[in-house]
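[agent] plan:
  1. take the single chain provided in the ticket
  2. run structure prediction with default settings
  3. attach structure tokens to the ticket
  4. add a short note for the reviewer (M.T.)
[agent] executing step 1
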Amino acid sequence: MSTQVRFLGCGDAVSSGGRFQACILVSGHILLDCGSSSITALKAAGVDPSAIELIFVSHLHGDHFAGIPSVVLDGQFAHRALPLTIVGPKDVERRVRDTMVDMYPGFATEPLRFPLNFIELTDGATRTVGGVAVTAWSVPHDPLSNPLALRLTLDAASVGYTGDTAWTPSLAEVANGADLFICEAQTLAPKARIHLSYDEVLSHRAELRAKRIVLTHMGPDVIAAEELAFERASDGLVIQIPRDPRSP
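[agent] step 2 finished; step 3 output follows
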């Protein structure tokens, strides 16, 4: 069985390079993060937001979760019936509902046409939600965002995801044996104390024992660099797991 990973958005907080913010579609019905531009990214890619069943949130920064209220609002307009489950860090339900009130105060108090469920993840624990096993690791980023790295396992495929983080040895566990490791690289050289740089990822390459590594959440210098040792995501990139042997 094949699992498809489709980068609908791979941008950073300020959409460097004109990219949509974090929005990664897995198996056609799962989102890995849902940044504020995600409703546009979904529709531009021809993906029906009402087909999304699960949203896994790495942390509570707007470029990773603030698109959820628009997905919910779209479901109301579309008479969605399919339940939507949001899986994320501590306080995910309160933060999402508060954001809904801030963005659409009248709408947020109306009864929903479909079930909206929330599940909190804890450090080191594995949960199975909708046939997806997810493991979470606390990582060093803005502590007020309750940051997690995530590992999803579904259809015999495994996808590791750093979210946003400085280097931490836990990332070796997230990447170990993964079919795909999606790794942030905000800058070429270390500059931001709560983000990974390309140089740091490269220096820890031997510890990141994943079958395939793809960089995401890139700033202008990483996007513009001519040659790098790792594959870089772009909006629209599609990855099949297992990899098609005919692919370059």
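[agent] step 4 note for reviewer: Residues 3-241 form a domain with the Metallo-beta-lactamase; Chain A fold (CATH 3.60.15.10).
[agent] ticket updated
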